[in-house]
């Protein structure tokens, strides 16, 4: 199964003949040669390099060539199991005249190394002191908070404040924006930075009048 930009390859008539095994991405490690020193010095950046993946495909007799042209273009999500997804771009030129004649072609994706769940996990954070995240990287959640007056939330010793609140607010921690219940931008009520979750155990504390506090997030994998 290959799903790109939410479209299953088979729905436009693409049959995948060969899909290489997907190995763990290569770490970004900077190496340096030092005069008079044997070997090298290395610094682990903690990040991973993108990788390429080439699929060998053919078209069915009922393939929608225009649909294939539209699909195999640009940037989008890429899934091989319909449970997790990467972000990727089509990184090859596809000769569609030959595709029309011979029905066979290759498509190469350049893939960001971290994949994440397609379905988000929702967690109730009110009234707890710790919670566990089964993720390989830091996670930037969407927080939903119903509160009034001045309130604060502390996650992993990082505190943010919301002032003069009244109602329900959605905090998009990835894009750093707050939307109120009327779908208006309410980012001005916040002091300090948006929080994030770390892989493993996290701590949380609150102050002020908060009646609901929940998080929606997607676990990440290599």
What can you tell me about this protein's structure?
The protein has about 220 residues and is mainly beta. It has two domains: about 5-115, Elongation Factor Tu (Ef-tu), domain 3 (Beta Barrel); about 120-220, Jelly Rolls (Sandwich). The chain is built from two helices and 18 strands. Strands 1, 2, 3, 6, 7, 8, 9, 10 and 18 form a nine-stranded antiparallel beta sheet that branches. A hairpin with a 2-residue loop joins strand 1 (about 5) and strand 2 (about 5-10). It is globular. The mean pLDDT is about 90.
Shape: globular
Question: Number of DSSP helices?
Answer: 2
Helix proportion = under 10%
Unreliable spans? none
- Specify Rg, calculated over alpha carbons: 23 Å
Q: Which strand-content bin applies to the residues? A: over 45%
What is the CA–CA distance across the termini? 19 Å
Q: In the residues, how many domains can be counted?
A: 2
> Residue-averaged pLDDT, rounded?
92
User: Secondary-structure element sequence?
Assistant: EEEEEEHEEHEEEEEEEEEE
Report the strand count.
Answer: 18
CATH topology of the largest domain: Elongation Factor Tu (Ef-tu), domain 3
CATH class bucket of the largest domain: Mainly Beta
CATH architecture of the largest domain: Beta Barrel
Derived from helix and strand composition plus strand pairing, the structural class reads: mainly beta
Main sheet properties: 9 strands, antiparallel
